[in-house]
């Protein structure tokens, strides 16, 4: 991966690479020592300010996709492209192999955001903790206003795989899910075996794992655990859709998204003064 393309935090030491962007508070690299990169970053990613970067761990807030009414822009909410404040950096990579970066974002930081009246006063905090054994990302939302509000959220994690058509995702067996693949009306189904990818997969599961991504091509297994999540979203566009997406193209088979989330009927409602934390922990088995 090239040097961080616009402001953020990046470190290299003894084979490790960790990187996060100030824009979107989006982690774009976690490569433990002696390992291939665990996160996928599209070779076609657009790093122009204000654009969504394809790959890493985009922050979804305050709506998922185009929102509950299907008409909201930008997709996955305004936090994904907003410029967050880098509040704290703790780097002990040379001593312990660890880096922690904390970001904050408030309502006043996005004055021209859509639906401002619906989310009049909030405080968001994103903490990314990198280590040689794990990457933990935590999104905390606080209602700093005088009225309750309801929001959707997610940590939209892109995992690098050798070939998605050979990958399986286990841990969701027995879970109900909503299938939202393009071109089909959403349907409710039950997962009865590990998830495999033979075309477009776009599913919202009614459970939060833990899940394991088994990637025989890279001879590794990735385990994801969550805290504060009601949903797991699993996505890959498949060949046909993937090749039509400008910043995915021929690289569609190199990733799978496994996302800790609270969306649709599991959206979070916060009363004044309340807060909620969503975390996802990624580690290699």
Summarize the structure in words:
- The chain has 285 residues and is mostly beta strands.
- The chain has one domain (8-284): Beta-galactosidase, Chain A, domain 5 (Distorted Sandwich), CATH 2.70.98.10.
- It contains 2 helices and 21 strands.
- The chain has helices at 93-96, 238-244; strands spanning 8-13, 16-21, 26-31, 59-60, 85-92, 98-106, 122-130, 134-143, 149-151, 153-160, 168-170, 176-179, 187-190, 195-196, 201-205, 211-215, 220-227, 231-236, 255-262, 268-270, 275-284.
- The strands form 4 sheets. Strands 5-6-7-8-21-17-16-11-14 form a 9-stranded antiparallel β-sheet. It has a 7-stranded antiparallel β-sheet with strand order 4-10-19-18-15-12-13, with no helix packed on it. A 3-stranded antiparallel β-sheet has the order 1-2-3, with no helix packed on it.
- A hairpin with a 4-residue loop joins strand 2 and strand 3 (26-31).
- The two termini are 24 Å apart.
Concise summary:
Helices cover 4% and strands 44% of the residues. The protein has two helices and 21 strands.
Briefly, what CATH class? Answer: Mainly Beta
For the biggest sheet, the summary is: 9 strands, antiparallel
Strand content: 35-45%
Radius of gyration (CA) equals 18 Å
Number of strands: 21
Oligomer: single chain
Shape: globular
Based on secondary structure, the structural category is mainly beta
Q: Determine the fraction of residues in helical runs and give it as a percent range.
A: under 10%
Strand order, largest beta sheet: 5-6-7-8-21-17-16-11-14
Uncertain ranges: none
Question: How many individual helices?
Answer: 2
Tell me, rounded to a whole number, the average pLDDT. Answer: 95
Which H/E pattern describes the elements?
EEEEEHEEEEEEEEEEEEEHEEE
Second CATH tier, the architecture: Distorted Sandwich
CATH topology: Beta-galactosidase, Chain A, domain 5
- Overall number of structural domains: 1
C-alpha termini separation: 24 Å
């Amino acid at each position: 991966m090239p040097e961080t393309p616009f402001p953020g935090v990046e470190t290299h030491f003894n084979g490790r690479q960790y990187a996060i962007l100030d824009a979107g508070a989006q982690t774009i690299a976690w490569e433990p020592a002696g390992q291939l990169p665990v996160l996928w970053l599209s070779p076609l990613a657009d790093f122009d300010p204000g654009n969504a970067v394809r790959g890493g761990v985009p922050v979804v807030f305050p709506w998922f996709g185009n929102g509950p009414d299907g008409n909201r822009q930008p997709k996955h909410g305004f936090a994904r492209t907003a410029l967050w404040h880098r509040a704290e950096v703790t780097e002990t990579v040379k001593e312990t192999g660890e880096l922690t970066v904390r970001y904050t974002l408030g309502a006043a930081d996005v004055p021209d955001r859509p639906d401002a009246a619906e989310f009049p006063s909030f405080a968001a905090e994103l903490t990314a903790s990198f280590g040689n054994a794990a990457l933990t990302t935590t999104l905390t939302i606080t209602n700093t206003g005088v009225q309750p509000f309801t929001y959707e959220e997610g940590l939209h994690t892109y995992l690098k795989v050798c070939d998605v058509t050979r990958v399986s995702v286990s841990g969701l067996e027995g879970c109900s899910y909503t299938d939202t693949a393009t071109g089909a009306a959403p349907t409710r189904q039950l997962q009865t075996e590990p998830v495999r990818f033979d075309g477009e997969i776009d599913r919202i599961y009614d459970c939060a794992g833990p899940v394991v991504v088994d990637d025989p091509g890279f001879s590794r297994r990735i385990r994801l655990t969550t805290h504060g999540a009601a949903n797991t979203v699993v996505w890959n566009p498949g060949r046909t859709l993937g090749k039509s997406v400008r910043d995915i193209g021929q690289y569609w088979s190199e990733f799978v998204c496994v996302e800790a989330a609270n969306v649709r009927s599991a959206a979070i409602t916060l009363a004044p003064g309340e807060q909620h934390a969503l975390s996802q922990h990624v580690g290699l088995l």
